[in-house]
Records
---
Amino acid sequence: MASKSGRKVIVTCAVTGAIHTPSMSPHLPVTPDEIAENAIAAAEAGATVIHLHARDPQTGRPTQDPAAFQQFLPRIKQNTAAVINLTTGGSPHMTIEERLRPASHFKPEVASLNMGSMNFGLFPMLDRFQTFQHEWERQHLENSRDLVFKNTFKDIEHILKTCSGNGTRFEFECYDISHLYNLAHFLDRKLVTPPLFVQSVFGILGGIGPHPEDVMHMKRTADRLFGDQYVWSVLGAGRNQMPVASMSLALGGNVRVGLEDSLWAGPGRLATSNAEQVRIVRSLIEGLSLEVATPEEARAMLSLKG
Ligand SMILES: C[C@H](N)CC(=O)CC(=O)O
Ligand SMILES: [Zn+2]
């Protein structure tokens, strides 16, 4: 039986993030030019949604200063129709007020929202990366041994109320099963409205693992809690990026790639750009006779303000 024309798949590209540091890869975008060029190239390669963090151009240190975002946002908006998704996670070392600044300033179509507090173990990367240009990079990893990424119910409600008023909708980052129940709690209280864009995060130490059974467990639980009121997407950290993406595609889901989540294009092979990862996941999508959703199709699927 011929397959119907391809299901539309939302491809999110997370361009730089706040987890990896400049000494880990020469291809990690740091300056406003690098972030803008990477975002535009990722959109040209097919990325539907662009997830953005900012960095200090000199040190590469994560910053939530709206002035830093202002250095690249207009250029990205002028050169792509992609949906803009601004982080409210910032870096796990930041306060909620600091983390909330870009989203409350720019009132984006989408903002990320982390659905629970958790240990956030980055220190295992010290086994892979030992030489750092800046001391803060080593501290960033070392300090994660005693780091709690704080997202209390009060914090989440504060972000929801601050952003919803601006017509901003959310990418709900769920790092574990409990985070799905937290989201269900806010749905019951009508503080979030369907369709819920659920981004399941696999393979961050402190959250759920990247095993196929973990992916199935997240999917089954989300199906039970949200039925047809959600749009499911996944991200796999590090080497799990493409295997987890493949599972999502086979299960009817959407995908997130980008150097925020993984520096790799293959075993021991650093990705030379975000667009390279978009092209890889696109070949998986088209290999399954599916189609990459356009930004307009994603706006309809996610009920965005456009
Ligand atoms: C695992 C990712 N760092 C999830 C994330 O992108 C969080 C955020 O920016 O709010
Ligand atoms: Zn992020």
Note: The pocket of zinc ion (ligand 2) is lined by residues 14, 17, 51, 53, 87, 89, 112, 260 (CB under 6 Å).
---
Amino acid sequence: MKKEKIIIGITGGIGSGKSTVAKLFEQKGIPVYYADDRAKALMNENIEVIDQLKTEFGEDVYKNGRLDRAYLASMTFSNPEKLIKLNAIVHPAVFRDNEEWTKAQHSPIVMKEAAIMIESGSYRLLDELIVVSANEAVRIQRVLERDNTSREAVEARINNQLSEEERLKYADYIIENNLGLTELAQEVERVYQEIKTKYYIA
Ligand SMILES: CC(C)(COP(=O)(O)OP(=O)(O)OC[C@H]1O[C@@H](n2cnc3c(N)ncnc32)[C@H](O)[C@@H]1O)[C@@H](O)C(=O)NCCC(=O)NCCS
Ligand SMILES: Nc1ncnc2c1ncn2[C@@H]1O[C@H](COP(=O)(O)OP(=O)(O)OP(=O)(O)O)[C@@H](O)[C@H]1O
């Protein structure tokens, strides 16, 4: 199978290690679009997104001109209806931004890293989906060590995501990340070789 540009998604539950995996692919020379990071940037820069967020969540969602992420998170991850509204504002803007970015790339493989690619339906536009998987206890522990947050706040996000079992059903490739970073790098290399072989990439 020979395609002009192969688009590969990297997803996984909170704290699974998808950003770490994306960086390892980037080190191999693959351009990566970081949807979560771009979402945050657009929420601070895109006038339409800013206006819609203020209308939906109130002016206080911005403090000194910057999005108050903790405040917005506290409003949405405990209230599914509000989260649906937030997603409906942010996801179309990220979709357009990603399309522009993808068109501008000149690489046989490009990747997109996003937290809720299956839930949002954006996985349908991919050629391949990599799911990064780790046990829930490991994921929670890693996020607690990384962020200034609580177990309850992490669990609230998990409750708004697919279960690990459901997510894995969508995977073309699974990268296990319960062990150390050396093992993770080996997993990334294995999947990279499989993809290159499938698409006849040198
Ligand atoms: C509420 C916000 C501002 C909180 O920001 P914060 O810096 O605390 O979190 P960040 O965006 O880095 O996400 C961290 C993790 O939270 C989880 N998470 C984020 N957004 C969502 C969501 N819409 N649904 C379920 N889980 C989510 C993911 O596991 C993600 O990896 C932010 O998460 C947000 O705007 N989310 C809605 C837009 C979105 O879906 N972004 C992610 C993909 S484009
Ligand atoms: N195999 C590993 N060994 C040790 N630490 C790891 C491993 N994989 C990831 N980490 C660490 O765990 C934390 C979570 O990883 P990462 O940020 O890549 O996850 P993520 O899936 O992108 O998270 P989020 O959903 O919150 O955006 C980070 O601090 C990362 O450095």
Note: The beta strands are 6-11, 32-34, 62-63, 66-67, 109-113, 128-133, 173-176.
